[in-house]
Amino acid sequence: MAEEEIKVGIISCSGEDLPAGTISRLATRRVLELLRPEQTVTICLPLFLAGGEGERAFARDFPTITVDGCAKQCAKWGTEAHSGPVSAALVVADLLGGDYAGQRSSRKLTARDEQAVALVAARIAEQVDTILAGTRTGKRAPGQGEEEP
Amino acid sequence: MAQVESKALLIPCSGIGKVHGLIAREVVYRVVEELFPGRADTLCLALLVKGDEQALAAVRSHPCITVDGCPRLCAYKNVELAGGRIEQSLRVVDAFKERKGAQPGTATALTEQGWQVTELLADQVAAQVRRLCPEEA
Predict the structure, then answer these.
(1) ipTM
(2) A44, A99, B23, B49 — which has fewest CB within 10 A?
(3) What is the spatial distance between Cα B118 and Cα B32, in angstroms, rounded to a whole number?
């Protein structure tokens, strides 16, 4: 019998107010489209409130990585409040060494912005690989399958 | 007499799965950064999902314009759930009803057609900002 294929969920904050939100969104897209297209899925964070139970089951159905622009970590806290515990939580500001001053609109991105996207995407892909390696060896990813106390 | 406001809050869904979400996001940046800086601002929708108190207060105290990509209306519903004052709600998907076969791009990058739709919708939002927040306010 074929093993069930496990996919990793990635949820971006996509914060509109900060350049780091654009980096989180584009880095997530890069992983989904280019780096790990067969191993990853995503969902719009606001669907946890605007959608139904199907959407809110996302973090219970998939080991999930959140990608936040700033220390407020809206994607992480929003996911854990409305869906389930996350397996990894990345913060763009941490990865890029502080608050990121770049462009918000995709029309105005600079070479530096593109480099930031590539760096954050690479870190997300590393986390995807770590989670999948853990599931292959039978090690449960944090947050996966945990039951309410 | 209509209330004169100093600033409108423009909130896109930024939907990550479809081109419509990117267009919604870029519509807001076009208005906030280029057409009406100072009279229009944006706010992270994710803050409302998190339940951030300052974000909740902001959408309750300013006129809000929501720009959604698809019929799920995430921006509209989240602002509504937060008790926000929604003055206008746009759906990007509606702009494509008269543009069958258009190739606007992807959720990552827009084509020229995608930017044209962005401009069109930004003009609609700008008209509302002009009405809500006159220059003399």
Answers:
(1) 0.93
(2) A99
(3) 13
Assess B105–A contact: CB distance below 8 Å, yes or no: no
Instruction: Out of A29-43, A130-144, B3-17, pick the least confident.
Output: A130-144
Q: How far is CA B73 from CA A26, B5, B68, B91, in A?
A: 22, 25, 6, 8
Q: Tell me, letter by letter, the H, E, C secondary structure of chain B.
A: CCCCCCCEEEEECCCCCCHHHHHHHHHHHHHHHHHCECCEEECCHHHHHHCCHHHHHHHHHCEEEEEECCCCCHHHHHHHHCCCEEEEEEEHHHHCCCCCCCCCECCCCECHHHHHHHHHHHHHHHHHHHHHCCCCC
Closest approach of chain A CAs to the CA of B4, in angstroms?
24
A61 touches chain B (CB under 8 A): no
Contact A42 B17 (CB under 8 A): yes
Closest residue to B50, CB basis, from A42, A44, A78: A78
- Category of B116 on φ-ψ map: left (φ > 0), alpha (ψ -120 to 50) or beta: alpha
CA distance A53 to chain B (A): 14
Q: How far is A138 from chain B (nearest CA, A)?
A: 31
Contact criterion met (CB below 8 Å) for A35 and A121:
yes
Quick: pLDDT tens for A104-137. 999 999 999 999 999 999 999 999 999 999 887 6
Chain mean position to CA A57: 16
Read off the pLDDT of residues A7-16 as tens digits, 9 standing for 90 and up.
Answer: 999 999 999 9
